[in-house]
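Hi R.,

Here's the input for the 3-phosphoglyceric acid complex you asked about:
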Amino acid sequence: MAKKIISQVDVKGKRVFIRCDFNVPLDANQKITDDNRITASLPTIKHVLDHGGRAILASHLGRPKGQASPEMSLKPVAERLSELLGQTVALAPDCVGAEVQSMVDGLSDGQAILLENVRFHKAETDNDPDFCQQLASLADMYCLDAFGTAHRAHASTEGVARLLPTAVAGFLIEKELKFLGDTLEAPSRPFAAILGGAKVSSKIDVITNLAQKVDMLFIGGGMTYTFYKAMGYNVGTSLLEEETVPKAKELVEMLKGMDQLEFFLPTDATICENFDGSTEIKSVTSDQIPDGWMGLDIGPETLKLFKEKLATAKTIVWNGPV
Ligand code: 3PG
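And here is the predicted structure with 3-phosphoglyceric acid in place:
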């Protein structure tokens, strides 16, 4: 699907609402431990500023569930952005409201402002029409550059885009779509996919789709235990999406029945009684997770197997943490 890119529109004098993914990891002192997501957003932001636009930057951080909380403030991001851009990027006290509006009105061409965490409002994840309208009233055009969040139909990722007269993609989205598109169209083989993360429900389509294209498919991470349950294994207190167990069963059967596909589920699990690791940690074969214990992720035997197999791959796509 062709996408209009930020470089194809005139941003001069325009207030451009740029949805970034600044969901960066922070340590206990609110220090950013990895600023990759911020640096990845710079080409789009710089393009807007260098071409005389006004950048209104928006992002979520964490999952504050509609409550403002200082630990999930974007303050550290505003500071890092100011350093990287060589100009002050003020942090608005909120993402909507009169004060924010007046700060945005005070921007000059070539200046940027960062709105406070959009998820401090439940209306963000609800994609609430009034909230979308309030966000849209801050800008003249919309730019989506939050690749890591582009799959969420939230107010700042989806709703606002429909309200502003111009909506385009940023350079990060363009780059990722190009890599992904080229990879899926003409991969060097063997082609492998690693799928992790907690929720099978949000990955069913991805797994089904990738299974038709790849030579090897590896499943790990939190969703492993929903698959184990589907296979009749005891999963103790592991992460489990009970309602997705029947679908996971169908998926396993489908994947095992695909002749051209090597499908790997972890053969062992690293387990513990507490997620914080304060008690004994050990590994067991997949079907031996005792009651009261939780699978944390793949075990050493699986790690060795995945490593050996992945070493033979010429292309790897990876989605979700393992
Ligand atoms: C991520 O870190 O995966 C993205 O920022 C999306 O975050 P979310 O899963 O909380 O929507």
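One thing worth noting: The chain has a mean pLDDT of 96.

Cheers,
M.
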